[in-house]
Amino acid sequence: MKKILLFGGLLLSTVLTYAQAVISPAKPQSKPIVITGATIHVGNGKVISNGYVAFDKGKITAIGEGSAPNTGNAEVINANGKQVYPGFICPVTTLGLVEIEEGAKGTVDDEETGDLNPNVRSLIAYNTDSKVIPTVRSNGIVLAQPTPNGGMLSGQSSVVQLDAWNWEDAAYKTDIAVHLNWPVVRTGRRRGPVAPAAGGESPDEARLKQLDDVNNLFTAAKAYAEVKPDVINLKFEALKGLFNGSKKLFINVDGAKEIIEAVNFANKLGIKAVIVGGKESYLVTNLLKQNNVPVIIRETQTLPARDEDDVYLPYKLPKILQDAGVEYGLTGIGFWRQRNLPFEAGQAVGYGLTKEQALSMITLNNARILGIDKTTGTLETGKDANLFISTGDALDMITLNVEQEFIQGRNVNLDNLHKELYKKFADKYGLKTE
């Protein structure tokens, strides 16, 4: 990843630290905790009225309806009239890699030079001291997938938990995916003819060359993975997990034609693929279902890809994929806008999803796609205690109010720079903050 300018980074850090007190990561869970009296949204479609959830040493030990049995020396949290949710999961984001968008040098570290960089690991560039992370965490997001950008083959991503001292502590599941930006068919629609590519190539010629480069690299990497090499090739080593099933290929692609190409490419090589974006995935649902290829929708608050499409199509896309039996999840754009993830999921309820299906879209579904559903994504015995208590509906912008949040059983500090500024100016004008 790009080098960070030490002076610029220190100066920015000084300014931001002055504006906000440092928030320390929570200490490990020291005693059992039982939340009682809440409406519990399990994350798999099930809702428990007047329920309880108990956890100890970071793991859920019991969940059910009615009074919690054998609370013993546990800390009991009375959540009567409140809601308990599994922590939200945000895939494919630059959270922790970008601090000031198009801003000061040393605050953007999300890409490397060159087109084919599968060996780049975004995890080691993840900044746990980002001031953006607490603002996202305050809206119930507890896990994220910081993802590299740039070039055609951007690099590898990992899942992190959002309350850590450093990237080693943050790592939740490492190097789970390789990210490929599929070459796009450029039509020049609405903007006149497409200009020739660098070197005088036509757009079609440049695209075919990109496809050849990707195909040649992956073909060579597959052959490399099938033998014990005499010389270690770092790029091939990074791709090896795609061929033994330990990694997935996340393909950024929107058009129906390109989605078909991408799925066929993955099938030819025996790779598990995930479509990211997929604006026209509604046109190829049969292909996606038959090949068990999930889609991570990249925000719904946008316009459709085609002028002739229904203007509300992006809002309806989750319901279309749900009805077609295609596995799907949801992410947002960039980094700070991920705090809107629950609200975009909630808007899908107005266009056909049930509330629990919308919740699953950003909990269980995302967990399955990321390969972490055995440990998180739902509130079930044996899974990590990644959850939060809200006084209202967590998918509603008006009523979401995260009172307490736990990541692997640790009681997380929910303060952030925005709250500090609100308190500051509320105090100036004599307003109540409670």
Automatic annotation (TrEMBL):
Stored Pfam families: Amidohydro_1
Domain Amidohydrolase-related: 350-391
The keyword Signal is annotated on this UniProt entry: yes
Entry-linked SUPFAM superfamilies: Composite domain of metallo-dependent hydrolases, Metallo-dependent hydrolases
Keyword Signal: yes
Gene3D superfamilies xrefs: Metal-dependent hydrolases, Urease, subunit C, domain 1
Span of the signal peptide: 1-21
UniProt keyword annotations, A-Z: Signal
Protein name: Amidohydrolase family protein
Record organism: Mucilaginibacter ximonensis
